[in-house]
Design brief:
Rossmann fold, 4-stranded mixed sheet, 7 helices, 9 strands, globular, binds guanosine-5'-monophosphate
Length: about 200
């Protein structure tokens, strides 16, 4: 199963996914490639693969990126090698990507992909969270808030929606979605093998 989390910058996608991945070792995280600058607390290869424009374009030309998008002037993409590694290990995969990215993943993986949109409790709350992390300039904050307005109006493109009012509640909701999705009959085609019916 491919679990795609989308939602505006600052809504808490990263924190929610970290908690989920800590608890559920059967889910691997798809580390994206980006051309944006590394923030002080970020770790190369864990938060992102930080690459130059040229390096990113070379990966694109070599078909090493499954989907990609431009967000606030920077390129972000899902590298195929990361997905393959997790799939080979038999893991489900979690992605934190933009809505167009989520749509592309859905188109590629069809019902294997589950898309979840994370909403802030209010727009004011989102603005507070973006300003509070003090990692962007005023211009970048405004660009992210503008992008957020646009993204919020399109939440209906995702299969599920969660309001991140309290992180514990949001993680719990996400766990329930994953739990139910794992029980869908099409994901359990091999279940009758042990019944010895023939
Ligand atoms: P940030 O700069 O805040 O880390 O990320 C900006 C936006 O880019 C977020 O909405 C995040 O979900 C999205 N993003 C990160 N990696 C990818 C990716 O590989 N593909 C796409 N389409 N979006 C991504």
């Amino acid at each position: 199963m491919i679990i795609v989390i989308s939602g505006p910058s600052g809504v808490g996608k990263g924190s929610i996914l970290s908690r989920l991945l800590e608890e559920d070792k059967s889910i691997g995280y798809s580390v994206s490639v980006t051309t944006r600058a590394k923030r002080p607390f970020e770790v190369e290869g864990k938060s992102y693969y930080f690459r130059s424009e040229d390096e990113f374009d070379t990966m694109l030309a070599n078909n090493e990126i499954l989907e990609w998008d431009v967000y606030c002037g920077h390129k972000y993409g899902t590298p195929i090698f990361a997905l393959e590694k997790h799939l080979e290990e038999g893991k489900d995969i979690a992605l934190d990507i933009t809505l167009p990215g989520a749509q592309a993943i859905k188109k590629h993986f069809k019902e294997e992909a589950v898309t979840v949109f994370l909403l802030p409790p209010s727009f004011q709350d989102l603005e507070f969270r973006i300003r509070n992390r003090e990692s962007e300039t005023e211009e970048q904050i405004r660009a992210r808030l503008n992008a957020a307005r646009h993204e919020l109006m399109q939440f209906g493109m995702c299969d599920y929606v969660i309001v991140n009012d309290k992180i514990e509640n949001a993680v719990c909701e996400l766990r329930k979605i994953i739990h139910a999705e794992r029980r869908r009959s099409f994901r359990n085609k091999g279940i009758l093998q042990k019944y010895d019916l023939v």
